């Protein structure tokens, strides 16, 4: 009996979930056809139908990571301004099991991106777009008088750098950086930003 399009899509979803579980457990360094096949309970021969080469598997995993990051639920502050800036930065931090797994995968993917000029450029673009969105939120907070005047793009670059650094520390030492401490540190940062953002 021939396979239907529905069968193919269902199998592709199964493969996607297996890829995600391997990434969450082992990072990009542990992403191999054999590991995904084992997780899926299938043969590597079946997977070569989807991924003829390791590069195809990595490219798919990166697309899957980007899709999950883009479509995951976000915090909504309910109002624009500094509250929206805070919500956007909280969305980046590994404050839940799901966010921790996603961040582990992102951080492990940096090595892959650094080794590939095309991926490196793609990542630079992703982070640039994220800074631009953050700068818009910061500009609104400045218009509301919640943050002192200053270059919103510069402030966004600093804020992004702060939270990404906090992500790495939290992943490396979760005992020292539990969720509540991450939130406290972010609030401390925002308070200092409000006090010094206009200073040059």
Structure description:
The protein has helices at about 5-25, 35-40, 45, 55-70, 80-90, 95-115, 115-145, 150-170, 180-195. It contains nine helices and no strands. It is mostly helical. The chain starts with a helix and ends with a helix.
Give the topology.
Elements: H1 5-26, H2 33-40, H3 44-47, H4 54-71, H5 82-90, H6 97-114, H7 117-143, H8 152-172, H9 179-196
Helix pairs in contact: 1-2, 1-6, 4-6, 5-7, 6-7, 7-8, 8-9
Query: Helical region count?
Result: 9
Overall residue-averaged pLDDT value? 86
Report the sheet-strand fraction: under 5%
Helix-strand category: mainly alpha
Distance between the termini: 72 Å
> Helix and strand string, N-terminal first?
HHHHHHHHH
How many beta strands in the DSSP annotation? Answer: 0
Summarize the entry for a quick read:
It contains 9 helices and no strands.
Question: What are the salient characteristics of this protein?
Answer:
200 residues; mainly alpha; 72% helix; 0% strand; elongated
């Amino acid at each position: 009996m021939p396979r239907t399009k529905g069968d193919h899509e269902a199998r592709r979803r199964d493969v996607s979930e297996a890829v995600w579980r391997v990434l969450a457990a082992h990072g990009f360094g542990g992403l191999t056809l054999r590991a995904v096949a084992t997780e899926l309970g299938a043969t590597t021969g079946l997977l070569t139908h989807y991924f003829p080469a390791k590069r195809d598997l990595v490219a798919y995993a990166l697309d899957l990571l980007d899709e999950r990051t883009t479509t995951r639920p976000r915090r909504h502050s309910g109002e624009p301004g500094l509250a929206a800036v805070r919500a956007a930065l909280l969305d980046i931090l590994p404050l839940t099991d799901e966010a921790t797994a996603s961040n582990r995968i992102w951080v492990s993917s940096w090595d892959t991106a650094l080794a590939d000029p095309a991926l490196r450029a793609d990542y630079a673009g992703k982070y640039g777009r994220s800074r631009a969105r953050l700068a818009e939120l910061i500009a609104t907070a400045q218009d509301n008088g919640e943050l002192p005047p200053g270059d919103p793009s510069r402030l966004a670059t600093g804020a992004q750098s702060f939270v990404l650094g906090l992500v790495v520390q939290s992943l490396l030492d979760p005992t020292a950086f539990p969720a509540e401490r991450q939130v406290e540190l972010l609030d401390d940062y925002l308070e200092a930003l409000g006090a010094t953002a206009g200073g040059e």
